[in-house]
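Supplementary Note 3. Input sequence used for the single-chain structure prediction.
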Amino acid sequence: LQLKSDVDLRTPAEISAQPDKIPTGVKYIQLNVMADENLIVTPAQIDTLFKDPKLASKKMGGVEGVEASFFALYRDFVLLPSAQKSYRTLFLSLLNTSNVPVVFHCTNGKDRTGWATAALLTLLGVSKEEVLSDYLRSNEYLLPLHQNEIDRFISNGGDSGIPAALFGVKRKYLEVSFDEMHRRYGTIEEYFAQGLSINTAQQEQLRKLYLVRDRDL
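The predicted structure, written as C-alpha coordinates, is reproduced below.
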Protein backbone atom coordinates (compact mmCIF):
# COMPACT_ATOMS: atom_id res chain seq x y z
CA LEU A 1 0.00 0.00 0.00
CA GLN A 2 3.06 2.26 0.22
CA LEU A 3 1.80 3.76 3.48
CA LYS A 4 3.50 6.87 4.75
CA SER A 5 1.61 7.45 8.03
CA ASP A 6 -0.07 5.41 10.75
CA VAL A 7 -2.42 7.42 12.98
CA ASP A 8 -3.27 5.56 16.19
CA LEU A 9 -6.40 6.85 17.96
CA ARG A 10 -6.09 4.59 21.03
CA THR A 11 -5.28 5.26 24.66
CA PRO A 12 -1.73 4.70 25.97
CA ALA A 13 -2.95 1.60 27.85
CA GLU A 14 -4.35 0.08 24.66
CA ILE A 15 -1.16 0.88 22.75
CA SER A 16 1.02 -0.60 25.49
CA ALA A 17 -1.04 -3.81 25.51
CA GLN A 18 -0.91 -4.24 21.74
CA PRO A 19 1.57 -1.88 20.06
CA ASP A 20 1.49 -1.30 16.32
CA LYS A 21 4.14 -2.96 14.20
CA ILE A 22 5.41 0.02 12.21
CA PRO A 23 6.91 -0.64 8.78
CA THR A 24 10.20 1.07 8.04
CA GLY A 25 9.70 4.61 6.79
CA VAL A 26 6.14 4.98 8.09
CA LYS A 27 5.46 7.95 10.39
CA TYR A 28 3.67 6.91 13.59
CA ILE A 29 1.26 9.44 15.14
CA GLN A 30 -0.50 8.85 18.46
CA LEU A 31 -3.75 10.75 19.03
CA ASN A 32 -5.56 9.83 22.24
CA VAL A 33 -9.15 10.67 21.33
CA MET A 34 -10.43 9.68 24.78
CA ALA A 35 -7.73 11.37 26.89
CA ASP A 36 -10.36 13.48 28.66
CA GLU A 37 -12.57 10.48 29.46
CA ASN A 38 -11.45 7.99 32.11
CA LEU A 39 -14.27 5.48 31.75
CA ILE A 40 -13.31 3.79 28.48
CA VAL A 41 -13.31 -0.01 28.86
CA THR A 42 -10.08 -1.67 27.78
CA PRO A 43 -9.84 -4.97 25.86
CA ALA A 44 -8.24 -6.56 28.94
CA GLN A 45 -11.21 -5.56 31.09
CA ILE A 46 -13.64 -6.93 28.52
CA ASP A 47 -11.72 -10.20 28.38
CA THR A 48 -11.93 -10.53 32.17
CA LEU A 49 -15.66 -9.80 32.23
CA PHE A 50 -16.38 -12.21 29.40
CA LYS A 51 -15.01 -15.09 31.45
CA ASP A 52 -17.96 -14.59 33.82
CA PRO A 53 -21.17 -13.81 31.88
CA LYS A 54 -23.19 -13.12 35.03
CA LEU A 55 -20.60 -10.62 36.24
CA ALA A 56 -20.44 -9.06 32.77
CA SER A 57 -24.20 -8.60 32.70
CA LYS A 58 -24.18 -7.09 36.19
CA LYS A 59 -21.23 -4.75 35.53
CA MET A 60 -22.44 -3.67 32.10
CA GLY A 61 -26.13 -3.43 32.96
CA GLY A 62 -27.23 -5.86 30.30
CA VAL A 63 -27.75 -4.89 26.67
CA GLU A 64 -29.35 -1.59 27.66
CA GLY A 65 -26.33 -0.70 29.78
CA VAL A 66 -23.89 -1.49 26.97
CA GLU A 67 -25.91 0.61 24.53
CA ALA A 68 -26.09 3.50 26.99
CA SER A 69 -22.31 3.39 27.36
CA PHE A 70 -21.89 3.60 23.62
CA PHE A 71 -24.36 6.49 23.37
CA ALA A 72 -22.22 8.43 25.86
CA LEU A 73 -19.07 7.44 23.98
CA TYR A 74 -20.38 8.64 20.62
CA ARG A 75 -21.44 11.96 22.14
CA ASP A 76 -17.94 12.31 23.55
CA PHE A 77 -16.44 11.93 20.07
CA VAL A 78 -18.08 15.25 19.20
CA LEU A 79 -17.77 17.05 22.54
CA LEU A 80 -14.55 16.04 24.31
CA PRO A 81 -11.68 18.53 23.93
CA SER A 82 -9.28 15.61 23.47
CA ALA A 83 -11.47 14.22 20.70
CA GLN A 84 -11.70 17.60 18.97
CA LYS A 85 -7.94 18.06 19.22
CA SER A 86 -7.23 14.55 17.93
CA TYR A 87 -9.64 14.73 15.00
CA ARG A 88 -8.34 18.18 14.07
CA THR A 89 -4.79 16.81 13.93
CA LEU A 90 -5.92 13.78 11.94
CA PHE A 91 -7.83 15.77 9.31
CA LEU A 92 -5.15 18.43 8.95
CA SER A 93 -2.55 15.71 8.47
CA LEU A 94 -4.53 14.62 5.43
CA LEU A 95 -3.86 18.00 3.85
CA ASN A 96 -0.12 17.27 3.80
CA THR A 97 0.37 15.02 0.81
CA SER A 98 3.71 13.86 2.22
CA ASN A 99 1.67 12.05 4.92
CA VAL A 100 -0.46 10.01 2.53
CA PRO A 101 -1.39 7.25 1.96
CA VAL A 102 -2.35 7.07 5.64
CA VAL A 103 -4.06 4.47 7.79
CA PHE A 104 -5.95 5.60 10.90
CA HIS A 105 -7.33 3.17 13.43
CA CYS A 106 -8.34 2.47 17.03
CA THR A 107 -8.75 -0.96 18.66
CA ASN A 108 -11.63 -2.42 16.68
CA GLY A 109 -11.74 0.26 13.98
CA LYS A 110 -15.43 0.98 14.45
CA ASP A 111 -16.04 3.65 17.09
CA ARG A 112 -13.32 6.32 17.30
CA THR A 113 -12.36 5.41 13.75
CA GLY A 114 -16.02 5.17 12.78
CA TRP A 115 -16.81 8.77 13.70
CA ALA A 116 -13.60 10.03 12.08
CA THR A 117 -14.56 8.29 8.85
CA ALA A 118 -18.20 9.35 9.03
CA ALA A 119 -17.28 13.00 9.63
CA LEU A 120 -14.75 13.07 6.80
CA LEU A 121 -17.08 11.36 4.30
CA THR A 122 -19.91 13.70 5.26
CA LEU A 123 -17.70 16.74 4.72
CA LEU A 124 -16.81 15.34 1.30
CA GLY A 125 -20.50 15.19 0.41
CA VAL A 126 -21.33 11.52 0.92
CA SER A 127 -24.97 11.12 1.96
CA LYS A 128 -25.80 10.18 5.53
CA GLU A 129 -27.49 6.96 4.41
CA GLU A 130 -24.40 5.88 2.49
CA VAL A 131 -22.20 6.70 5.47
CA LEU A 132 -24.43 4.69 7.80
CA SER A 133 -24.54 1.77 5.38
CA ASP A 134 -20.75 1.74 5.14
CA TYR A 135 -20.48 1.94 8.94
CA LEU A 136 -22.85 -1.00 9.45
CA ARG A 137 -20.70 -3.18 7.21
CA SER A 138 -18.30 -3.33 10.16
CA ASN A 139 -20.57 -6.06 11.55
CA GLU A 140 -19.74 -8.29 8.59
CA TYR A 141 -16.08 -8.29 9.61
CA LEU A 142 -15.97 -7.69 13.35
CA LEU A 143 -18.57 -10.13 14.64
CA PRO A 144 -16.94 -13.11 12.88
CA LEU A 145 -13.58 -11.91 14.20
CA HIS A 146 -14.90 -12.21 17.76
CA GLN A 147 -17.00 -15.32 17.13
CA ASN A 148 -15.06 -17.58 19.50
CA GLU A 149 -15.46 -15.11 22.36
CA ILE A 150 -19.14 -14.65 21.54
CA ASP A 151 -19.82 -18.40 21.39
CA ARG A 152 -18.03 -19.01 24.68
CA PHE A 153 -19.92 -16.18 26.37
CA ILE A 154 -23.29 -17.52 25.19
CA SER A 155 -22.47 -21.15 26.02
CA ASN A 156 -21.67 -20.04 29.58
CA GLY A 157 -25.12 -18.54 29.94
CA GLY A 158 -24.50 -15.01 28.71
CA ASP A 159 -27.04 -12.87 26.87
CA SER A 160 -26.21 -12.96 23.15
CA GLY A 161 -27.25 -9.33 22.86
CA ILE A 162 -24.33 -8.14 25.00
CA PRO A 163 -21.45 -9.19 22.70
CA ALA A 164 -23.42 -8.06 19.65
CA ALA A 165 -23.86 -4.61 21.23
CA LEU A 166 -20.24 -4.51 22.36
CA PHE A 167 -18.25 -5.96 19.46
CA GLY A 168 -20.55 -4.84 16.68
CA VAL A 169 -22.02 -1.52 15.59
CA LYS A 170 -25.57 -0.24 15.57
CA ARG A 171 -27.07 2.49 13.46
CA LYS A 172 -28.24 4.31 16.58
CA TYR A 173 -24.67 4.58 17.89
CA LEU A 174 -23.49 6.69 14.97
CA GLU A 175 -26.81 8.55 14.92
CA VAL A 176 -25.91 9.87 18.39
CA SER A 177 -22.75 11.50 17.03
CA PHE A 178 -24.62 13.00 14.10
CA ASP A 179 -27.40 14.26 16.38
CA GLU A 180 -24.92 15.83 18.80
CA MET A 181 -22.96 17.39 15.94
CA HIS A 182 -26.13 18.93 14.46
CA ARG A 183 -27.41 20.04 17.86
CA ARG A 184 -24.15 21.74 18.78
CA TYR A 185 -22.96 23.04 15.39
CA GLY A 186 -25.83 22.80 12.91
CA THR A 187 -23.84 21.50 9.93
CA ILE A 188 -20.79 19.37 9.26
CA GLU A 189 -19.01 22.46 7.94
CA GLU A 190 -19.60 24.32 11.20
CA TYR A 191 -18.48 21.28 13.19
CA PHE A 192 -15.19 21.38 11.31
CA ALA A 193 -14.95 25.17 11.59
CA GLN A 194 -16.00 25.68 15.21
CA GLY A 195 -15.40 22.31 16.84
CA LEU A 196 -12.18 21.38 15.06
CA SER A 197 -10.91 24.85 14.02
CA ILE A 198 -10.56 23.71 10.41
CA ASN A 199 -11.53 26.71 8.32
CA THR A 200 -13.48 26.92 5.07
CA ALA A 201 -10.34 27.06 2.92
CA GLN A 202 -8.93 23.95 4.59
CA GLN A 203 -12.24 22.15 4.20
CA GLU A 204 -12.26 22.98 0.50
CA GLN A 205 -8.71 21.73 0.17
CA LEU A 206 -9.76 18.39 1.66
CA ARG A 207 -12.48 18.15 -0.97
CA LYS A 208 -10.04 18.97 -3.77
CA LEU A 209 -7.61 16.32 -2.56
CA TYR A 210 -10.05 13.50 -1.92
CA LEU A 211 -12.79 13.93 -4.52
CA VAL A 212 -12.50 13.12 -8.20
CA ARG A 213 -14.68 13.98 -11.16
CA ASP A 214 -16.52 11.14 -12.89
CA ARG A 215 -14.40 11.58 -16.01
CA ASP A 216 -11.27 11.03 -13.92
CA LEU A 217 -12.42 7.55 -12.81
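The first helix runs from residue 12 to 17. The mean pLDDT is 92.
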